[in-house]
Design brief:
Structural class: mainly beta
Distance between the termini: 37 Å
Helix content: under 10%
Shape: globular
Largest sheet: 7 strands, mixed
Radius of gyration: 14 Å
């Protein structure tokens, strides 16, 4: 199993960024993918989840107005698009394969390598 993410991005404030996470080695529709980010000196921050099987999404309230997750099952690639970027969005963005237990707790068994997104004028 691999989750391979696209390369680093540099954006100006107010613009958008779209990053990718290519899944391989398993049936992509069998697992949800979560996106989490980590800003400089900060902990992990959960952004939301996508079910690649039907494209259903759940976003953290903080990002709901600015983020879009999509999945292309033909290329087994999941995308995150974040709009109206600001300097506080500078972070490493990770995709992670979500495993939901019978008690509905979630853990991540595979992670992408992370994408550095820098927002600066």
């Amino acid at each position: 199993v691999q989750l391979v993410q696209s390369g680093a991005e540099l954006r100006n404030p107010g613009t958008s960024v779209k990053v990718s996470c290519k899944a391989s080695g398993y049936t992509v529709t069998n697992y949800d993918i979560d996106w989490v980010r980590q800003g400089p000196g900060q902990g992990l921050e959960w952004m939301g989840r996508i079910d690649p099987e039907d494209g259903g999404t759940k976003y953290a309230q903080k990002f709901q107005a600015r983020v879009t997750f999509t999945a292309d099952t033909s290329t087994t690639t999941i995308y995150l698009e974040l709009s109206r970027l600001r300097s506080e969005d500078t972070a490493v963005y990770y995709c992670a394969r979500a495993v939901v237990s019978s008690s509905y707790s979630t853990f991540y068994d595979y992670w992408g390598q992370g994408i550095q997104v820098t927002v600066s004028s």
